Amino acid sequence: MRLARAAVHDGSSSALEIQSVEVADPGPGAVLVRMGASGVCGSDRHVLDGDWTLPSPTVMGHEGAGTVEAIGAGVTDVAVGDHVILSWFYPCRRCVACLSGKAYVCTGSRSEECVLPDGSTALSRSGERIFPYLAVGSMCEYAVVPESGAIRIPNDVPFDVASLIGCSIATGFGAVTHDAAVEAGSSAVVVGSGGVGLSIIMALKLVGANPIIAVDRSAEKLEAARRLGATHTVEAGPDLADRVRELTGNGAAYAFEAIGRVETIESLPGLIAPGGKAIIVGLPPQDTPVAIDALALAESGKSLIGSNYGSTVPGRDFPRIAELYLAGKLPVDELISHRIPLEEVNEAFDAMRRGERARSVIVF
Ligand SMILES: NC(=O)c1ccc[n+]([C@@H]2O[C@H](COP(=O)([O-])OP(=O)(O)OC[C@H]3O[C@@H](n4cnc5c(N)ncnc54)[C@H](O)[C@@H]3O)[C@@H](O)[C@H]2O)c1
Ligand SMILES: [Zn+2]
Ligand SMILES: [Zn+2]
Asked: Where is coiled-coil annotated (predicted)?
């Protein structure tokens, strides 16, 4: 057992408290990771703002990377000293989906319950159990995760970069390459240019999409979008569909929503040309259905695709993305606008609520 500083959500307040929590030793099949860095993702904000219900109290953070400090019995994939990226959807490796190479729709994972495969958690506070968000809880100096949720990467990838590969980058890269399967030379529009939207833009540049149209309310975000690969930027407004048609002729081949707002998700079909694909990446609050004109969608042969974690297979995709970074093809470091200590996590969420900062990363 050891003590660690962590950002704890009590289940009601939208502000996190920095507290000392107890971290148990890793049991069979589990890995103790000393956190190097944790990104501050829009999904953490949804939880703090009460958009989604979750077991609590919770140690927040699901976008993390660090060093293996100890391994439990039977662990063979990683060794002490390895650098790992944590996956917020650890695969069970046994269900039909896992056996079919589709770990992203694993039915045996208990990540969403925020527990280890045996239903336990390694975190507590004065005898009270604490849940690590999505079985990661990266806003803490230590995490205990299942072996299948700790993916070894080359030691020369900095932790701040590696942490972002664990959520926003994998989500954006996978939404573009797996879910949309964007071809070189095809047009794309990205509605919302925060951490996830900018990750989509980087991946679109990598695969050679053209034009790449970034949309946001914030001038700061649109500037970052241009830096990372957008060929055009459009300030969000009621004339968005007209602006996209002006730039693409008949609508984009691909449209991504990366905010999580009902209205912008509903606007997606109007941004794409007949036969185009609209990809929902942003996540709205729970129990908020969207309205789609199904007749118009079907008659124009448009597709509406839900994208979760970019259909990432962590063991395949994290090392692949890390190598793209090392090869200079995916400038993940340029997504990081702020490196902060754990104590400044609430300021990072407040800035996010105001639409500021590309990505804050907590560095331990
Ligand atoms: N599908 C997945 O697997 C997955 C993974 C990670 C995050 N997400 C979701 O993606 C969404 C974005 O996350 P993020 O970390 O990038 O958050 P973020 O806050 O960094 O980005 C949101 C962006 O949307 C912009 N925005 C807000 N309202 C707007 C509007 N009306 N029009 C245009 N732009 C607007 C903001 O200025 C900001 O730049 C969240 O809903 C998050 O939960 C989904
Ligand atoms: Zn499985
Ligand atoms: Zn995330």
From this structure: none
What sign for the dihedral angle of Cα 54, 58, 61, 65? negative
Please identify which residue in the block is written with the tokens 């407040």.
350
What are the b/e assignments for 268-287, b being 16+ CB within 10 Å?
bbbbbbeebbbbbbbbbeee
Question: What are 16-40's pLDDT values in tens digits?
Answer: 999 999 999 999 999 999 999 999 9
How far does residue 95's CA lie from ligand 2's centre (Å)?
Answer: 4
Closest Cα partner for 57 from 111, 21, 27, 81? 21
CA–CA dist 292, 283 (Å, integer): 16
Three-state secondary structure readout of 260-289:
CCHHHHHHHHHHEEEEEEEEECCCCCCCCC
pLDDT of residue 254: 99
Looking at residue 42, its pLDDT comes to 98
Architecture of domain 2-153+331-363: Alpha-Beta Complex (3.90)
* Token pair of 144 as six digits: 């205990």
Tell me what pLDDT residue 58 has: 98
Residues with CB under 6 A from ligand 1: 41-43, 46, 167-168, 171, 191-197, 215-218, 221, 236, 258-261, 264, 281-283, 307-309, 352, 355
CATH class assigned to 171-308: alpha beta
Instruction: Give the whole-angstrom CA distance, residue 272 versus residue 162.
Output: 33
- Residue corresponding to tokens 């979008």: 225
Residue 269 and residue 304 in contact, taking contact as beta carbons nearer than 8 Å: yes
Q: What is the pLDDT of residue 279?
A: 98
Low-confidence ranges of the chain (pLDDT < 70): none
Query: What integer pLDDT is reported at residue 358 of this predicted model?
Result: 97
